[in-house]
Amino acid sequence: MRPRSVAVLMTLILCGIVTSAFSAQLSVRGNLDIYGIWSANLLDFDSDVGDGDNYSTSQRLRTYFDFVANENLKAVLGLEIDNVWGEGSTADWGTDGKGNIEVKHAYLNFTFPDTTVNVQAGLQYVAMPSVFGNPVFDDDAAALTVSLPIYEAMGVTLGYTRGSDTSTNIDEPPVGDDGVSDDLDMAFIAMPVTFDGASLSPYFGYVWLGSDYDFTGQQGLETALDLSLAEDDISIWFLGANAKLNMFDPLLLAADVIYGALDSDDLDSSGWYSALSASYKFEPLVATLFGTYATGLDDDENDQTLLPVLAEDWKVSPNFGGVRAFSTTYDTFFTKAVGVGSDGTGLMTVGLILDKITFMENLSHKVIVVYAQGTGDEGTSYFTEEDSGWDFYLVNQYTIYENLAAISELGYFTGSSEKYEDEEGHDLDASYFGTVGFSYKF
After folding, report:
1. pLDDT of residue 15
2. 408 in a domain, yes or no?
3. Can you give the residue range of the structural domain that contains 175?
4. Which of 233, 286, 331, 354 could form a disulfide with 322 if both were Cys (CB 3.0 to 4.6 A apart)?
């Protein structure tokens, strides 16, 4: 973001605060996480090569401004500021660098008068229902959603979102005889149903891509399907459902099933993903057994068995998907290095979560143990059905105040990958990390 743009943005925020007494009520919420991390082999998994820097301090501030006119109308602005201490002019001595304020959300939310029809338009969070974050779509997006109840226990949400459009200047002449077709769009519908002690949330999405759409940098399409540039129109569709069962409380069950397919003249890919978890509330803790499975890459490059991924937020542990106690820029460690499993595809996991372990007042613990194995054919990627790994993760949290916690993490990973070791020229050595920091929610 340019300095002038930052100044204009902050002026608008201040003007909104000053005038809120006359037009709307302003509320502020968000979180600030600050922590230091020590690590070894976290990204290269090579003990023979010294880490360039095995310690760093990071912080992330997310602030949301709710401009509420009444119970049926509000606007939301969400900002995010990420800093790594000492990196660039934004977090070195002086800390006066420009350009690191990100607009995360900016949307309008209103309900039509005398109805229950709700509309949300703008930069917002859009996610298909899931147990561990949806592997197909779960991200911030420029979108329009319309939600309305059908019956007391049933509703429907219709949505549209645009993922890319690089030729929006209508004053420019079209490129070529047929113009430019570089858009990426998705329409979806979700119909959550609530029963006595259970809920079911089916959904369907359809995605269309122009023949000039550039896949470069599009994780899940470029990486997983090895595409570089589309030569014809491509369509993607997915059908899924999330179910929850709490009628046997304190036993809670949850499950996901998703099937999706990509169709083009040169490439077809279809695959599925499933997840199942069972949680039981004991007196001092909550224990969760879980498993996930998704189809992987096939030997046939032109007819793949991989679920198309658009904008995912799947996660079960730091090394498989990237779940962490801190909300920062660090993401999945192992699966990012091998290029498989960050979105849950091409992966099978079985794990145990022990959460909310409490033996002392204000002090709690969380333990995650995950075993994972690839599901792709041998030789297709760095993590196939011949490869496996273990992830161990511990979180300790001490509540200083109601909204402020001191947190420490410990993580250890060990695994094997025959193709990775052959092509990278070294063993896949174990890695570990530890953190200490603070998390403030306001």
Report:
1. 57
2. no
3. 112-286+304-314
4. 331
